Known about the structure:
By secondary structure, the protein is of the alpha/beta class. It has two domains: 34-64 and 334-448, Aspartate Aminotransferase, domain 1 (Alpha-Beta Complex); 69-332, Aspartate Aminotransferase, domain 2 (3-Layer(aba) Sandwich), CATH 3.40.640. The chain is 37% helix and 16% strand. It contains 13 helices and 16 strands. The chain has a seven-stranded mixed sheet, with helices on both faces. Strands 11, 12, 13, 15 and 16 form a five-stranded antiparallel sheet that branches. Strands 1-2-3-14 form a four-stranded mixed sheet. β1 and β2 (43-46) form a beta hairpin. α3 packs antiparallel against α10 and α4 (92-104) runs parallel beside α10. The longest helix has 22 residues, at 335-356.
Amino acid sequence: MSTTNQQASANDISAENLKHVLFxxxxxxxxxxxxxxxxxxxxxxxxxxxxxxxxxxxxxxxxAGHQHPKIIKAIQDQAETLCYAAPSFATxxxxxxxxxxxxxxxxxxTKSYFTCGGAESNDYAVKIAKMVTGRPKVIARYRAYHGAxxxxxxxxxxxxxxxxxxxxxxxxxxxxxxxxxxxxGQEPExxxxxxxxxxxxxxxxxxxxxxxxxxxxxxxxxxxxVYLPPDDIMPRLRALCDKYGILLIADEVMSGWGxxxxxxxxxxxxxxxxxxxTAKGLTNSMVPLGAVVVSQKIxxxxxxxxxxxxxxxxxxxxxxxxxxxxxxxxxxEGLIENSAKLGEVLAxxxxxxKAKHPSVGDVRAKxxxxxxxxxKNRETRERLxxxxxxxxxxxxxxxxIKKTLAEGGVYxxxxxxxxxxxxxxxxxxxxxxxxxxxxxxxxDHADAMLxxxxxxxxx
Length: 459
């Protein structure tokens, strides 16, 4: 195909999308979505044939790599046998996938309700928690994201919730353990875990007899900046929930399925939640599927109590087949182990990048789940640029960084002052270092925005 025809194809794809598709989290005018035509492994290509290293796994969900042949084959085989059966029927793939999930999730998490994605999983997790406890309130966190559905956006603790309110009644918010910018003004050497003690005070003021659950992202996702809690936070949170008879919901939609170097992020602290919500990597996102996985105690409760909810596509056969194949791929190809191994490389290189670039205030990584936070001044930790009302725009200083990344063939998910790093778990060390070298180069633009005092230079 000629370059002219390729360009026309790219223009046609973009034009048709912009004319007929509503894009999420965006003003629709002037969007510049990349027209993607194919993908394989850690790469995808646009309609002009340009190759990108996918340092975002799209939306931190293509954990096993693009177009994995085993998962494709499983979907094809299932399509020839049975595409769909209503949720009230039993199918071999639904039962097998639920068993496999129980085998790899923490502790006694034993039974799954299948959904179509992460937001729906969090909605169902809250419904189940309220049903089991008979309590109306749920505590989430500020600086957290749980999805865009009515319930999930109410749990979300960032600027987007306001544009969707009024939302779900009884959704409350506590403070996130964000050690680089501690809400309580503490440093690691002075911290007394005020984020936990303030949460307990909140529970007491709200009356613990009315609090059904606490929902947390086990490690906050790229929308917030991949906050890594101190190692004792989750055990303390588990103990706090046990003290007041509150259920602990772990949102592992993004941090699950090997992303952090363990099957699930909660495994780093040997903490077992009462309910675990998941999606994304469950099927390598090749077919939409989520799950709400509950403890044996909740499963026992459901033996003689009705689950007053349901959905047409729960446990869809094609999706379950993709889930089975995905879990087998993680196991057979050692992808969880590769995430842990290359996570050490990622942490090391991020440290080197921080030492080199004065615009880098903090770097964080757990497995292949990392972030770079940009500042005007390391001492004051003032952000490099203002966080605008719509942080996903590419205006201002981030545009030059994104342009360099695109020219270097690296795709990342970014916000003002944040670069995230979450490649497919099948990435090699060579590919990882290649992408990080492009990120390193792009940060020269951030450094150029600083004067000798670490302030933003006049534009």
